[in-house]
């Protein structure tokens, strides 16, 4: 057998503890030798008769000499330590086949001169499996069969058929065969048979209800007690819960880990690498499943051969802390360096995170891009769009993820030096024994000390400043390419303001960065805050442009591995662009723009909910102060001031926001009520679709345009709409409007009637939220038709043949329906759904006739990004009136902002009384507040519409440009006013705030109460946004310098 002691000096910083720093095990985590057994052994009463049948079967086969068959079978049954569970479940033929395979392996070993015996037996069935192989305790065999990963992938990981399996595994001596020290490892997998498959939430903690029946039969009273405690703890957490137990009088320790099933794939198999790194080996392992969704793993550990003098408790304490790190990233990009012990788990996981960071921020565009950018007109939307496309292409063609990984793989020693810098700054200083609770396993009379192998190694390395690190990197690498990649570690370290990396428990890794390293030429609008979150199934960002900012969280999925590569390259840039768009849209509310994006890994496309939970939990780690020793400690915070994020639903997250708020509440976050908008009404949410919040602002632009053009009879205005009656915008636009619909295009197809679609039928569909596929076609005129996406070769009333329904649907918005005045397609077009960039510079000419006139004279863009900026400008040049999405559909963000304000204003009890809907009964205040929100939306939209119409007539500037210019003017002025001396004029400030707060809130709580409860930064934002928007809407984008004086003077004269 290989001598383990030979490997000890190569363990990074391996040291044998003197015992002075040994963590203390509390009495309730000490087990007697008898209690440590854990499970009652199963005795297979038919074992002897089965053995005789196996002997008979092997003699018939005649592969083993008949005089040796009995000895081989007896040795297999009695000397290998195989659990009776195996014999009770396997057939005679299967056991005979396994014995024959081992005999063959023994013959092969003898023929090769007594080399190591290799036993590799596999029996996989739909409801159970057996794996047996030979190995050396304490060593990861990278060339072996990897049975643990195989059984985890096949049985333990979340399965599409929802079957659940438990696992028992044992290590036993191999009497008389193989090399000295070789042992047999057996794995037994069985499908669970729960006492109750679908327990109620009230039964989740009842072990007798949620357990597998075999577990209940075999578990000792002590094990049941341990599992009962674990289940209770794990149900309240997102990440893993770890408990350690000491077997008195021995070096054996029992590690019990509880987590939510499906949240830690490949965690079980990589745990072996972790305890091998720390010089330990396992004798038994159990994975128990419970019908409440939990999975609990028990590992029985002891020093590996050659490590008998090690301090087991120091190793176990390090493992306890590193278990959550392994859970966060079970197979990091540099796991091979961890297995070979070139890097510790902390170091290899750190390198993994920096690799992701480097991929997003290393792809610099070069001086040529900067020169070109300086030559182009920043106010020319077409120039800026072309520049954005060039930027995406250049960034995709520079450093790839594989390039970065190859370079980092070459420099493990340099990674360790760079990690030391990160470790020194952000390592959580453990609390003293007096500050810890009585069950802390790392407290000593002198206070805890981290003496794990990796920590000891770090303590031997020299400390360096960031400049010294840069110089060290230059000296360690061989070319500029390598220097650029490895220097990104220094950038990562230098700009990381706080992280949960060293938090004892966590579900994913989160980092809060200063965005100061972002180049201005690539990101001209500076970010305020930047979070990176890395998990086992995803990576994601959260970006915001102001301290007080709000935006949705979306989950991005990839249809293929190639699409994932494309999505990962553009992840940060798209997140930045979305937050920037939100910043412009949030022009007249307190919050600036923000956005969160979660990109699912290529092999985790079904893990959206798990990824969202981990993303949110890890962000909360950085937003609230940890107060639980060994669970959530106080982090090192270089940002130095409290932060609150205001989030909302977006793509693929609409059904998850209630969980996010309640989870924040369970974590003790005082701002849990305002954490997310889009909550259900039972949590005080104001659903946009139910009250038509987004549609109300769109309708203000529609009605305002009609009024300016003198179109007083809506029933005579022909209209086209994308986005059908099944959607939020589409349904509410139908319910709120009175125009003559001649075409609706939605996901199911195209519905058209030049004589007008029957309104009563459209109202029915809108109220029932059904697609046009449910429209009663008997109500169409002779000229009307419906083409569904799955219909082909369909003839229209005009005689035109539609060859493909899907293609027809995708291009129908470009058709000339010929139903508008003067031969136009229609009088108005209101996109309420559809694909982004459905109208772009490549196809916009289909909407412009031969004389250069727009076929759609009015376009009110309700759907986000339906028309590209260059296409908008082309349509406006052709005479169309075009209002873009950032102006028209801001009703939703206004509603969300006022939802946040109510949550910040009320205490928990008041919020429950006045804002939460119980049993379908809306509180009176809730009804009044919703009506107030609707009125504010209409007022804000009307003010912006009037300002844009005025500016357009005065200057001739296109509406599509004015929308952005107006937003920029308001946002810039808001920042100036929030931090101006006006804030210090208390009487003036209160006058303005009394108007800025909704009157209902002021009447219910008083201005003084609101000023006490709402965070100061948020109040400043209300003050600045209200003044700035009212000033710009009234006086325009470039007023004279005396207008502000006039504006403020009017406020000073207001009396209450």
TrEMBL record:
SMART domains: ELFV_dehydrog
EC category: oxidoreductase
Disordered: annotated span: 434-454
A GO-annotated cellular component: mitochondrion
Gene3D superfamilies: NAD(P)-binding Rossmann-like Domain
GO biological process, one term: L-glutamate catabolic process
Entry's EC annotation: 1.4.1.2
Start and end residues of each Glutamate/phenylalanine/leucine/valine/L-tryptophan dehydrogenase C-terminal domain: 685-956
Top-level division of the source organism's lineage: Eukaryota
Keywords for this protein: NAD, Oxidoreductase
Catalytic reactions of this protein: L-glutamate + NAD(+) + H2O = 2-oxoglutarate + NH4(+) + NADH + H(+)
GO MF, one annotated term: glutamate dehydrogenase (NAD+) activity
Protein family membership: Belongs to the Glu/Leu/Phe/Val dehydrogenases family.
Biological function: NAD(+)-dependent glutamate dehydrogenase which degrades glutamate to ammonia and alpha-ketoglutarate.
Record protein name field: NAD-specific glutamate dehydrogenase
Natural source organism: Protomyces lactucae-debilis
């Amino acid at each position: 057998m290989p001598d383990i002691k030979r490997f000890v000096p190569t363990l990074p910083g391996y040291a044998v503890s003197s015992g002075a720093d040994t963590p203390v095990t509390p009495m309730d985590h000490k087990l007697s030798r008898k209690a440590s057994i854990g499970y009652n052994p199963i005795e297979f009463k038919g074992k002897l008769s089965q053995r005789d049948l196996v002997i008979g079967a092997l003699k018939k086969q005649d592969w083993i000499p008949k005089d040796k068959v009995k000895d081989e079978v007896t040795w297999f049954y009695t000397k290998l330590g195989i659990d009776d569970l195996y014999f009770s479940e396997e057939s005679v033929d299967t056991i005979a086949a396994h014995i024959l395979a081992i005999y063959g392996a023994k013959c092969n070993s003898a023929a090769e001169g007594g080399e190591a015996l290799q036993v590799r037996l596999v029996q996989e069935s739909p409801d159970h499996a057996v794996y047996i192989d030979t190995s050396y305790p304490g060593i990861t065999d990278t060339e072996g069969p990897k049975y643990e990963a195989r059984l985890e992938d096949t049985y333990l990981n979340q399965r599409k058929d929802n079957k659940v399996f438990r696992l028992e595994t044992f290590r036993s001596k191999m009497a008389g065969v193989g090399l000295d020290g070789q042992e047999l490892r057996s794995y037994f997998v069985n499908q669970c048979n729960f006492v109750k498959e679908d327990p109620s939430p009230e039964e989740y903690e009842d072990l007798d209800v949620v357990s597998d029946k075999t577990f209940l039969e075999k578990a000792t009273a002590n094990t049941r007690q341990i599992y009962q405690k674990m289940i209770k703890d794990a149900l309240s957490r997102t990440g893993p819960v770890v408990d350690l137990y000491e077997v008195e009088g021995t070096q054996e320790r029992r590690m019990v880990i509880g987590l939510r099933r499906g949240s830690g794939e490949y965690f079980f198999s990589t745990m072996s690498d972790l305890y091998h790194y720390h010089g330990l080996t396992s004798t038994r392992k159990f994975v128990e499943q419970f019908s409440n969704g939990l999975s609990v793993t028990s590992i029985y550990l002891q020093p590996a051969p050659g490590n008998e003098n090690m301090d087991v408790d120091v190793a176990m304490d390090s493992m306890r802390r590193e278990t959550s790190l392994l859970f966060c990233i079970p197979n990091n990009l540099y796991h091979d360096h961890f297995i070979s012990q070139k890097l510790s788990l902390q170091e290899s996981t750190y390198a993994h995170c920096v690799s992701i960071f480097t991929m997003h921020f290393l792809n610099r565009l070069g001086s040529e891009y900067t020169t070109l950018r300086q030559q182009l007109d920043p106010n020319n939307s077409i120039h800026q769009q072309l520049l954005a496309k060039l930027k995406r292409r250049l960034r995709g063609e520079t450093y790839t993820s594989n390039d970065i990984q190859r370079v980092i793989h070459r420099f493990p020693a340099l990674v360790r030096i760079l990690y030391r810098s990160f470790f020194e700054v952000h390592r959580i200083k453990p609390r003293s024994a007096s500050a810890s609770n009585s069950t802390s396993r790392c407290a000593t009379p002198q206070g805890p000390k981290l003496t794990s192998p990796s920590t000891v190694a770090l303590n031997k390395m020299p400390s360096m400043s960031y400049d010294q690190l840069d110089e060290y990197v230059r000296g360690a690498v061989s070319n500029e390419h390598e220097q650029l990649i490895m220097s990104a570690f220094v950038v990562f370290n230098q700009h990381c303001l706080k992280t949960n990396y060293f938090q004892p428990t966590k579900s994913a890794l989160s980092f809060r960065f200063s965005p100061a390293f972002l180049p201005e030429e690539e990101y001209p609008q500076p970010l305020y805050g930047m979070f990176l979150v890395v998990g086992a199934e995803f990576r994601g960002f959260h970006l915001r442009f102001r301290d007080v900012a709000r935006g949705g969280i979306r989950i991005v999925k990839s249809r293929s591995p190639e699409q994932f590569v494309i999505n990962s390259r553009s992840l940060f840039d798209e997140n930045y662009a979305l937050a920037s768009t939100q910043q412009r849209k949030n022009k007249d509310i307190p919050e600036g723009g923000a956005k969160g994006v979660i990109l699912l890994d290529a092999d985790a496309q079904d893990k959206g909910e798990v990824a969202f939970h981990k993303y949110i939990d890890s962000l909360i780690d950085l937003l609230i102060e940890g107060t639980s020793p060994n669970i959530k400690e106080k982090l090192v915070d270089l940002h130095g001031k409290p932060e609150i994020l205001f989030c909302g639903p977006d793509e693929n997250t609409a059904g998850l926001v209630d969980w996010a708020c309640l989870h924040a509440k369970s974590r003790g976050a005082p701002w849990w009520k305002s954490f997310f908008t889009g909550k259900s009404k039972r949590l005080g949410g104001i659903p946009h679709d139910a009250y038509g919040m987004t549609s109300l602002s769109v309708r203000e632009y529609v009605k305002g345009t009609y009024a300016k053009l003198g179109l007083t009879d809506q029933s005579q205005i022909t209209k086209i709409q994308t986005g059908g009656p099944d959607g939020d915008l589409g349904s509410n636009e139908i319910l709120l409007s009175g125009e003559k619909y001649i075409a609706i295009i939605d996901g199911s197809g195209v519905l058209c009637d030049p004589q007008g679609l029957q309104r009563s039928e459209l109202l029915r569909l809108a109220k029932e939220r059904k697609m046009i596929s449910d429209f009663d076609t008997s109500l169409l005129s002779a000229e009307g038709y419906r083409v569904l996406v799955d219909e082909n070769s369909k003839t229209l009333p005009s005689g035109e043949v539609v060859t493909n329904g899907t293609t027809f649907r995708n291009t129908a918005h470009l058709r000339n329906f010929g139903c508008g005045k003067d031969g136009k397609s229609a009088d108005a077009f209101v996109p309420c759904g559809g694909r982004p960039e459905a109208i772009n510079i490549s196809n916009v000419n289909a909407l412009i006739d031969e004389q250069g006139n727009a076929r759609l004279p009015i376009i009110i863009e309700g759907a986000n990004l339906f028309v590209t900026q260059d296409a908008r400008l082309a349509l406006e040049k052709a005479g169309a009136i075009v209002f873009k999405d950032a102006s028209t559909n801001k009703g939703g963000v206004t509603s969300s902002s006022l939802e946040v304000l109510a949550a910040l204003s009320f205490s928990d009890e008041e919020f429950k009384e006045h804002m939460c809907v119980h049993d379908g009964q809306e509180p009176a205040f809730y009804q009044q507040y919703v009506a107030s929100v609707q009125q504010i939306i209409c007022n804000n939209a009307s003010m912006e519409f009037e300002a844009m119409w005025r500016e357009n007539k005065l200057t001739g500037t296109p509406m599509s440009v004015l929308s952005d210019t107006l937003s920029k003017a308001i946002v810039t002025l808001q920042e100036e006013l929030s931090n101006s001396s006006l804030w210090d004029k208390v009487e003036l400030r209160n006058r303005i705030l009394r108007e800025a707060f909704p009157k209902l809130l002021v009447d219910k709580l008083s201005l003084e109460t609101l000023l006490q409860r709402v965070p100061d930064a948020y109040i400043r934002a209300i003050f600045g946004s209200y003044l700035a928007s009212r000033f710009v809407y009234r006086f325009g984008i470039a007023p004279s310098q005396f207008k502000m004086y006039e504006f403020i003077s009017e406020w000073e004269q207001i009396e209450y």
